[in-house]
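User: Round two. Same drill as before: sequence, then structure, for each protein.

Assistant: Same drill it is. First protein:
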Amino acid sequence: MRLVKLMLAMSFLAVVMASSVLAGNEGRIYGRITTVDGDTFEGLIRWDKNEGSWVDVLDGNKKLDESLFDDFDSDRRKKYSDRGKKVTIFGMTISRESGGIFISSNSAQSGIRFGHIRKMEAIGKDKVLLTLKSGEKVELSGGSTDIGTSVREIIIEDESKGEIEFVWEDIDAVELMPAKSNKRSGFGDRLYGTLTTRRGEQFTGWVCWDMDEIFTGDILDGSEKNRKRKIEFGKIKAIERYSSSGAMVTLKSGEEVLLRGTNDVNDGNRGIVVSDPGFGQAVVKWNEFERLDFGSPAREVGYDAFDGGRKLRGTVYTEDGSSYTGDIVWDADEAYTWEILDGEYHGVEYDIEFGLIKSIEKKSYRSCLVTVADGREFRLRGSNDVDEDNKGIFVWTDKGDKVEIVWEDFSRVEFRQ
């Protein structure tokens, strides 16, 4: 009987240990890659060097569907009286008005967190067709190194075949799914910590350093007293900005190292990204960076935490006190909760997922106050999502009306959660 109990206890312990490892991979991008030759590989995925978790954002450009707005001329709307202009340079339309909507090009910057995606299909040298969990299909193109031949690397850790790196031309499709592997990643754990800016703002979440390093096995480069140093991020407790040309690195051993001489540790740094599951991500430039303290997340954000998106719904209020409730298209291109609102403030760039936004209030022609579901507020500017260059807020009301509201008349919007 004692032997049976011991065996049961050992079996239970094995299950708990396996579950613990799987929980460690729960937040990691995992999927099956099919090549153009028909070969398949399955495992943890590192995408374009700086995406490895479901909370990370796939960046690209999305084509605008102008046909959605064809019938707005005949409907009730609010709009500028002097925006019916067309500017053409060398035969190219720079801006034009179509059905009351001011369009600067036929595409818009877009992005989506990997957790919303079910399948990715390469359909050209710089295009990908996404099938979302909702069944919606979205085509994204270029605009970053995340899509197309400019992708820096796509690596899969296949449990039986090892680590394999692909170029874009080799990939036919990527099917995403919850992690099945209980094998620890060869790259180590995903970096996580709290970043403090020079103005005192703090962001906590999964970290990407210099748009490159995202794992504990990645290397921080620099020079100390003319000696080159390469330090694994897993050995680092904190990084603090020392000057425009250097950083003080505190190791877990207690050693402090002043590093200089590379864009990892000076103002050539391309930005520190913190992916916060409560709003999206913040990108902090070196001049605004103060300190990063590494730690461990209380919980992972798994694939099941994302729903693939749904239509934006809420109530839009105008300056004259009118209100319109229904389906919303923001800035003439964001229509779903998976889409991203972008802006900046005091040198920090924000990408906020619409599904996490509670309200947007216009504060001036050039700025907005964005409140997210957990109560945090962000004053944003510097993007047509949040200033006078906004291409229009469109509402398909529950009463059957189609309403266009331009920035001049917009007051605030409250989204239905």
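Second protein:
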Amino acid sequence: MSRLALFGGTPTRTRPLLPWPIFDAREEKALLEVLRSGEWWCYSFGAGSGRADNREDLSRSKLVEFQKAFAEMQGAKYGIACANGTGALEIALKALGVGPGDEVIVPAYSFIATASAVLMVNAIPIFVDIDYNTFNIDPQRVEEAINSKTKAIMPVHFAGQAADMGALLEIAKRHNLAILEDAAHAHGATWNERGLGTIGELGTFSFQSSKNMTAGEGGLILANDQSLAALCESYIWGGREVGRPWYEHHRLGWNYRMTEFQGAILIQQLARLPEQNAKREHNAFYLTTHLSKIPGISVLTTPRFAKIHSHHIFIFRFQEREFGIPRKDFLRALEKEGIPCSFGYAHPLYNNPVFLNQNFYPKGCPFTCGHSERNLDYSSFADLCPNAERACREAVWLEHRHLLGEKSDMDAIVEAIGKIYECRQELVRTPV
């Protein structure tokens, strides 16, 4: 009988993956407090930037408490909560003055919001390649992409690991560019001793259901400049300004507010985060040490400046030639061994139909409405981003909740991958 579970053998792990999200009576108590208070929505406008008029009325607000606590954890002066991480990026770009025809440099390997938020302000996302060893944006490629239309750089701290902010800060200073950190994966993570999201002009986070701390949805913007923080709040609150009449609107804002229920949950999620991140870090180190011994498995590098890595995703590269089987067969076999996994992104961002067909709003704008002097063919970025292309062919993702397991769970991952390697000839003979 085959040893592989795929062909009838015993799975390496039969225990289900740790459920996510993690919650207990603390979340229940906090939600009931909000429910029974009747204050489900807080008039907290201005609290995130320290400019609120009604500070006494905000003393019981869970949302205000969360904004302050998260900003303090990361080391920022101001924290402005909003509806989701995608909205946070769009708001931050508006606050930085990015608009029609401006170009924003983004990594080619990321979730679509990194680039679609740029299009939402009618600016142009310019994709650059990633560092093959870290999957983070490559500063050298950033430098090469800068021109007179470039307004900002948007590094993504992918999977919770700090991008090379030292190099990016130097480039941004030399070219007078803003940096907006997409820290959607990076709750509690740092670059050297500084919290991610606090290093550029603005930083954004997500609390969507898969993230390391979650309220189902939610986002937050960090700032150290009060004027920028106040501008972000104004956009979130329909264009209002502190000190002016409630129904007086000064700019084209929108309703991107977070509720008291979400704030209550996130306070409890935040309390768990340090212990959870420490466990993820410990288990990621263990996996890195042992998986690196298996031919064809190459774990991403963690630079010294990534002092705290939140490990939203544990990623390794799967080299088909060295391992001896196609990645699709490996992923199927690993799933059957009781280790949920995925290949991540099927292709780099620029290969999404929305970019290839320029299905923007209005159609083709900013290229067809006079805001840009060039009309980009997004399919041409494949030649400029070989590492992103390779990452989409080689990456294997394990969810962060794997890393909240015990040593036996880490051993099961190592054992399952080792087992597939030892039995790879079965997969060669009987591909799946």
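The radius of gyration is 23 Å.

User: Perfect.
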